[in-house]
Amino acid sequence: MNIFNRYFWQECCVSILMIMLGLLALFSFFDLIQELDTLGRGDYGINKMLVFVLLSIPGHIYEVVPVAVLVGMMYSLGTLARNSELIVMRVSGLSIIDIGWILIKIGLLFTIITFFVGELITPFSEKMAQRMRIQATDSVIAQDFKTGLWVKDGRSFVNVETVLPDASLMNIHIYEFDENFRLRSISDAKNGAFEDERWRLSDVTQTKFNTFKKIQSNNVQVQFFNEANWKSLIRPELLNVLLVAPEKMSAWNLYSFINHLETNKQKTTRYQVALWAKMIYPLACMVMVVLALPFGFLQQRSGGTSTKIFIGVMLGVVYQIMNRVFIHLGVLNDWPPLMSAIIPTILFLIAGLSMLFIVERR
Fold first, then answer.
1. pTM flag (> 0.90)
2. Are 241 and 256 in contact (CB under 8 A)?
3. I want to staple 243 with a disulfide (CB 3.0 to 4.6 A). Which of 1, 130, 135, 317 is the partner?
């Protein structure tokens, strides 16, 4: 049994890694082509463009590992079937369940790798890549509205016209309301930087409205401060959502941002779906193993290795498309986040188990 274990590990891991390298090279080439339009803008030269492409690789690893596992497994099992090695293993007393258990352990290894890359490496590398690109091209972080970023913070609404790559703020407008939703004050600051658990604002103009008095000339008070401290629930980590897509954020940052939105009674569906997808997506590696296993025992005399690779790539593409479609449908239709994230994986698992059942019956 140990010989079979080592043999499967060697054959499958080499195939998966080769497929992964091929897919990463393809995606990196596409990134390079896409970045050519930005080349020469500001200080964004060839060296920085290559660094940006390299920093984007961990994000692609996270995306392609399940597809690489599927295609690599199908290639390895197809090769073993073509050389009649699977038949010899079956005659030697190795059942499909035994083979499946060996392959599931290989899938578990790549599940751990996917989770590790998605949680610890991708969020950091993606943030570094975007910050470097923004700084080099002399641009700012894209905002949701033409007027900038709008955030609800307790009873206040905050408008930030510009968020710089180092998470510092420019042209900040804070509109504070009382419990009856009457405007109490407007604070305008030129700059803001996060220090000692609070925001340090500079060049602050504060306009206070006294809504409890009758209309008089002194109901509006204007004050100017060179510097002021602003304690807010908004933290630099929450601004990472502007740099990194929710699907590439770490689960902890997503959880923190969801808590912030819930505290301010804002909609969290998109980020909850992204959080559940982060939890479930690595498990797709083991589902792909179950889906690939029947192909080792199907079409052993007809169809070559290239056919199996083509089928594996198509199934991987279908899985990725289904993932994206169900995530968007869940956000649009307010489906339960867990359901939106898990349906494609469940469907592929059912398909793999069904094919395994048919192969075993034969």
1. no
2. no
3. 130
